[in-house]
Amino acid sequence: MTGRESPTYAPPMNITHASFVTLPVADQDRALRFYTDVLGFEITADLDMPQGRWLQVAPKGAQTVFTLSGPGMGDFEPGSTRGIMLVTTDVDADCARLAEAGTAVQGPDDLPWGRMATFRDPDGNGLMLLTEARHQEREEGDA
């Protein structure tokens, strides 16, 4: 194989989507304020469990939710998650909102796949904002 060829596997599995992504946090209340007040996510679950609080948030209508995993809810290191891509229709406006809320933002920068910026949540988890190129092209065509 050359490295670009796909190996042959058994028949495809039946996976339809990711249920949740774990974001390890040190303080669930602080993280909840950031994800709801700054990013505008909604609370999808807030339950007391024997191991601790099961707290989940998501953008409105999203299929995949984010579990804000606090102490006692697994062997996770706060701030260790990287590479979470959040798609937005207006990366520039969202970057301005993050900056107003005191969050450091790198970018946005124009890239072949769209306009993208990076930032970290209060625990240091790395997130990205992306306005996809095809969305940018539609907006520019409307102007």
TrEMBL record:
Pfam family, one: Glyoxalase
Transmembrane residue ranges: none
VOC domain sequence ranges: 17-132
Domain of life of the source: Bacteria
Name of the protein: Glyoxalase
